[in-house]
Amino acid sequence: MLSEFDLIKQYFDRSRPGKAVLGIGDDCALLAPAPGMQTAISSDMLVEGRHFFAGEDARRLGHKSLAVNLSDLAAMGAKPVGFTLALALPSADQAWLQGFSQGLFALADAHGCELIGGDTTKGPLNICITIFGEVAPGHALRRDAAQPGDDIWISGTLGDARLALAGYNNELALTAEEQEAAGLRMHLPAPRVALGMLLASQRLARAALDISDGLVGDLGHILKKSQVGATLNADALPCGPVLATKDIGLRRRFMAAGGDDYELCFTAPVSSRDAIIAAGAQCGTAVTRVGVIDAAPGLRLVDADGGTLALQLQGFDHFAGTAGS
Amino acid sequence: MLSEFDLIKQYFDRSRPGKAVLGIGDDCALLAPAPGMQTAISSDMLVEGRHFFAGEDARRLGHKSLAVNLSDLAAMGAKPVGFTLALALPSADQAWLQGFSQGLFALADAHGCELIGGDTTKGPLNICITIFGEVAPGHALRRDAAQPGDDIWISGTLGDARLALAGYNNELALTAEEQEAAGLRMHLPAPRVALGMLLASQRLARAALDISDGLVGDLGHILKKSQVGATLNADALPCGPVLATKDIGLRRRFMAAGGDDYELCFTAPVSSRDAIIAAGAQCGTAVTRVGVIDAAPGLRLVDADGGTLALQLQGFDHFAGTAGS
Lengths: 325, 325
Fold this sequence. Notes:
2 copies of one chain form a homodimer. Chain A is an alpha+beta fold. Chain A is built from 9 helices and 11 strands. The first copy, chain A, has helices spanning 4-12, 58-76, 94-110, 160-168, 176-187, 193-201, 215-226, 248-257, 273-282; strands at 29-31, 38-47, 79-89, 114-122, 126-135, 151-155, 208-211, 229-233, 263-268, 287-294, 298-302. In chain A, strands 7-9-6-10-8-11 form a 6-stranded mixed sheet. A 4-stranded mixed sheet of chain A has the order 2-5-3-4. Chain A starts with a helix and ends in a 23-residue tail after the last strand. Residues 321-325 of chain A have low confidence and may be disordered. Strand 2 (38-47) of chain A pairs antiparallel with strand 1 of chain B, so a sheet runs across the interface. Chains A, B: This is Thiamine-monophosphate kinase.
């Protein structure tokens, strides 16, 4: 029987020199913040049956658990430093732990983000990560900083994760190849850390967030915090390659209100356009201009001809239980 | 139906000037670390049926969820700064949320510790708090710093929380008054933050931890990390007032290997004795000298006459499922 301490030692304590002054194994971890930098902090909790299917591949789940947290740092423009992992497990299943820790550390290492502490306990499967990053004072990409006239930009593509969900749920029929390709976007999101850091450090963007509950709902948070409105061009939204083969109604719906995209939505002055395109090229992430921030409140969705689209779209609410209203 | 955002706004977002540069409502919270200070970080996850009974009073649970985290800062000698709260709830029960948030914030305010962010989701009840404190470089009370000849000290009293558990589980019969009095120690632990900060800032103690899984098991972590041994005087252990009325065998067992005490166990040079007693008096926390750190490995439990006690005692292991072996 694997004990709690053996479990931590075998799968999570890598005992190697790192950024933490003191890592796993004491009452607290100790970090020495870089002089003058602010600490960005975010927590995400993933629950089986809610954020992932029961029986989900452990390695993919390790990746995704950290990816959604890295995405929050990306949305702030912060550089990843470290994270804590609190894990409730039904049992100490060694094959699961092996896969989960491999997926977790592969992504952590790619971003120089160190596991510095946490907690393990028995219970219904629940993964809670708190992540720490650093950002220079005044550089963070906040939700309340959008200004009328700003362009609205999206990184990467939208909608394939939602398409994969629709396939799993038999909302629509996908081929095995489509399901697999779209599923990768759902299971292995790529947090846009490098892009977020460039946008913040070069002061290219004003407001930003990551799209986790659907573009329209999430952009609404920027509009509310910044006390502005927006016009989005539905035909400019960058479509995931699998969704791109589907009909226009489905495309628009899944891009505008899909969820699980983990792409950045950010606003920036018109004067930043060339530099934003260069920043996207520098880190290998597509960036697409999809709309404009308005002084008038409200979110207007238009097509390429400027016609208004009357889509009723809402973000995902964890207590309402489903997307939409 | 209370939405996720309404829930956060109504019960957890107090929108008042605080220590955070940016608090609840963005992708990350932002903290400006005090210049030159290290950040102490700890996470604890509490699972229903594991760390607390189903149906536990929400206000007490709010207190305890934060208390166990504050206790980790206390064990490091760190000053509380802020915390994140990730909460999985079976439903958005407003009476529960009201009680939980009241218990949580009452303790948070008493320690100047601010809720800066978190996550809420639907799922089996699970409470995960990550806490942040600050401590001067070189002052943290680490587990690896005990030295042969150090006194071993305990704050407060031990065993009443374990006695309460025994009553709830019908391991033994308690009167209603005994159950209530001992139960307070289990449900409303008092984290020894002020004492820990004095021990660290005045450099009175060397190693420290908080006793959550039972004294013998937890002290074992200090011994292992510090590569030393210890002799504990079982008759010197400070007994909780309810347990004090029980027989000596039960007293010794519940004090030495009870769990849920959230008292500090720390080691200190003999030269610190008077100052430690003064520090305890200053913050209203009893401090008791209970043993000595030895160069020889192993933990010896003796009685007041120096006779060896052959107690087989182990700490609580969350995957083994029960205390002792």
